[in-house]
Structures are given as C-alpha cells and as structure tokens.
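Lab meeting minutes (informal)
Scribe: AK
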Amino acid sequence: MKFIISTLLLMTGLALAALPVQAQSLIDGDADAGKARAITCTACHGPEGISVMPLWPNIAGQNAKYTVAQLQAFKDGKRSDPLMVAQAMMLSEQDMKDLAVYFEALPGAVQAVADPSKIARAVALYRGGNAEEGIAACIACHGPSGRGNPAAAYPALNGQHSTYTAKQLQDYADGARTSDDPTSIMRDIARRMSKEDIQALASYVQGMK
C-alpha cells in the first residue's frame, strides 16, 4: 500500500514535470547580487557552478527552489556537512534566493555516462522502477531527461557527478540525509536499492542531457 501511495505521488510529480519549463525563476532573487555573493561558493563548486571534485556537486542549472531548500536545510541542521553548514550559517534568506537564481541561470554540466556497462540496469530502474522491491521510477519526479521539477523543488540530476549522486543515495538509504522531509520519498526508495542499483543510476544520470 505504501508503495502504491508513493507511486501515485511520484506520478503526480511526473505530470508536473511534463509542463513547459518556465523561463523566469520561481524564486524572487537578484542574479547580479547572487553573482557577487557567489565568490566563496566557487572555491568548491567552480567559477561557473561546475565542480572539479566529483564529491562536490555541480550546482549550475539547478532549479532555484531546490537550491534554497538545501541551503536552508544546512542552516537548520537538517543536512550535515561541515563546509556547507559553515557557509549557510552566514547567509540570510535573501542571500539564498540571490545565489539560487544566479546558479539556476548558468548552463548545466554536460558529462558522459560514467560506466556504459550499467546503462541497461539504470534505464530499467529510472524509467520503470522495480515493483518487486517497491522502488518507484525516478522519471516520475526527475523527468525523462533528468531535469527535475522546479515547481515541486525536485532537483535536476542530469550532468551531476556520479560519485556525488551515489553518495547522496547511500546517505538517504542509511538515514544520514533526511532533507526530503516531510515525504521521506527518497529515503523510502533508496533503502530498497542495492548498491549495484545505486551505482548504476548514479552512473546513468551523470550522462543525461
């Protein structure tokens, strides 16, 4: 029953994701102010929001609602990372909005699939899930090309480092990351995945465009 409910919620997300992408950000921020405030961010995330360290996420092109929610989660203690918590504590709500719309407007990363041998497994999971294990399809929330759903603050996955994505899925599975409250959708899904599932999906979304 829980799987059915989660699937219905995710399919609602898919319907929303199919709507035309809005040209204007859903967050009321100032991109110019965000660019000026982003100097410290570039040390880890790169001058254009694309990091060179695969454990640090690419944030260029990420939808602003999701970015604001994650910055707030770091500041509130819902997400734990020493570097990010320290940075988020210094940000006001407006700073977060300004940074989010700035990075949202930058071109996202374009990368290749990390391990082509895992594509078949990943495509099956991403598009169809696994009913036997209660794993809902990723496409329902993250869209057919991995661009996410800005209105629902579901993140874009396309072009994200596979190393980072795999760690986040594992953190959801282990309960180390809980910033999907109040739905717990990602924790419910990730804990049903095998390590092979996680690695395959992380590899695949890295190459999505």
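Next up, CB showed the second protein from the same session:
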Amino acid sequence: MIVLETNIDDMNPEFYQYLFDRLFENGALDVFLTPIIMKKQRPGTLLKVICEKEKFERLKEIIFKETSTFGIRYYEVLRHKLDRNFENIETSYGNIRVKKGYLNGKLIKAYPEYEDVKAIAQMSGQSISDIYRNAMKYIEEMFFKF
C-alpha cells in the first residue's frame, strides 16, 4: 500500500468533490482531508490518498493536475484487513446487504450497507435511523444470537 499526501492552502474548496471522484474512479481506496496550520500560520488542508502500489502513478498524476500542489510526499504502509463477505437479509423495510467481517475465521462484526439503507429511506419516506436500527436488530438475531 502507498500513502500519498500533500498540504494545500490555495485551492478552491469546491474542487475537492471533483478531486475525490477522480481519485476513487482511478483506484484510490481511501481519500481524506485534515485541517492543518501551515507556515506563516496559514490554514491549510492535508490531502491523503491510500492506494495499492500499481495505482500510485495514475493517482499522483491526478493530484498534480487537479490540485494547486507543487509536491507530493509518499510512503509505503502495511495494512491488515478482515476477511469479509456480503449477505442479503430481508427486513420489514426490504432487502439490505450486510457486510460481515471475520477474524481468524470467526464472525466479529456485521453492518448494514449504508447505500441500501439510504435507498430504502428515500423510497419509503421512513427515517434512515429507524431503518438502520431495524436492520441491526435483524443482524444481531441472525448472526450473533447465542
């Protein structure tokens, strides 16, 4: 894994949404911004992009083209991730995908897929928090009841 990062203090903040879209479309695994104080006590933004090594060159090019930066730092990092899969569950609100995470072969977490919960809320007019809570109840009963 590679982390690319740069400090930005002179870019129109409206451009960040477009930048995020381009980075994710081209293989970024994560993109985030952190507010920072730069030299001369100027407020700025730290842009960080996490990617697999083979995406590095393309993402570096996008950052140079789509931001005001003149330099990018990068370094290799290690990552461990849970084994995971998705399973569909049928709730009283409708079908929702559940992301399940395993450590050493044991299920340790499961959460409803946000986009499914959001879509049901938009279509049904129900509260997103009610739908999420309902889905979590199903998940608890289906996967964690002992």
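CB comment: Residues 83-143 form one domain.
No objections, moving on.
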